Structure of Acetyl-coenzyme A transporter 1:
Amino acid sequence: MSSKENIYIGHILLIIILYLLQGFIQGFTSSIQLYLASYKASWQQQATFSWVFYPFSLKILWAPILDSIYYYRFGRYLTWLIPIQITIGIILITMSFYLESLLINLEILPLTFIFIIIYFLIASQDIVVDGWSVVLFSSSNPQWASTGQTIGQVIGYFLASTVLITFESSNFTNTYIREPLSLPKRSSGLFTLQQFTFFGGIGFFIISIIISVIFFFKKPSYKTINVNVQKKIYKKLDLFETYSSILKLFQKQCMRKFTLILLTFEVGFAATNYMTTLSLSEYGITRDTIALVNIPPVVLYIIIPLYMSRIRRPLKWFAYGYIPRLISALILAIYIHFIPDIIHTSYFYPILIILFCMNQAALYIMVVARVGFCARISEPEIAGTYMTLLATISNLGQSILSTLVLYIANWLPKTHAYSIEVGGCIIFGLIWIRLFWYTLRDLDNLPVEEWYLKPPTDVNITVFYDTKDTVKYN
């Protein structure tokens, strides 16, 4: 294997690990929602906790700061990445000692405040990693930015949701681990929530230290690279220029159309996304059982991004995934509606798992396609800001819809709230895809230069990094 291939694989692994940390926080937060449900939190309390997701919807406000202010010795990305991750580690370690008390007592406001801080920090980390991934893969295959993001987030989400909830459960551990091994039963699982949170914080520390050692002390080398990529790495944009670039992007008609799509496309799936697991909990299905049901779809989360790593028309895939996702949401809602009559049958869980796999397959086709398209059109010179802008718009639409459906659930009959909201969302989804089908096709066919503020002019030259970290062009 050549050194170039080794570097390429190293970049992929780096991005996967960094997105894994994001997925860990996202999965951990979803687990907290299940813990709250098991302690009988109301729909209104769940809606209040959903405000923790809003930093991802507002991160564009500070993205230009992270993109334009940095220390040259560390670079645009490491300047912010390491302090952010270490701070998250400190918060997780500190929070581990009183998290269970907050959950048991349903102290929603302090719990929400702590997680808003964590989400603000991980949203900032997302800005940095999005920008870095665009630069790393812009001259090879931009779709790998999406693939790395999806795989990393899935693994992290799996660890902090399924693994946490399953092995923290005393019932699961006693039944499937201790009893087969003839070990005495205990009132706790393999670990407690406190221990998991504590060691999660330690994990943030360890990964940050390893990245610091690798990148801060690497030896200088000769490389032939794309001169534009090098300029984008070392050219320090003025803060005002970075903020103004956001306004300039919205002067483009294609950007305005894509913004409307990102803000509204989740309307068809809002209730399915944010009420399904909570509804299962309402029917008495334990959180560790819900975690087990979510294990089989994890295989799809890995296979789909790898399969789609070479696609060239991502919005085409995005559109083709929309109708199947609506259909799977409808079938899943009907099945959940009849849970009281079929929960004790032998086929209940196998069919539920199949329906989860169908829904999640369509979901991840759309996710990989959307993120891949965003990575393709993001101008590397403002990569962090550009990717953050697109992600912020999408997250804002999702956050508003998630809060809205949870609050509306309070006004509907408790036993039918989920079914009613899923049905209403599907109707809106059918209207949405009818309105935007041809717009998606037209945007997908635009040349990538149409999305840039400045057209690129690529030249390959040899760049030498001397021991004083200067850059010489020969």
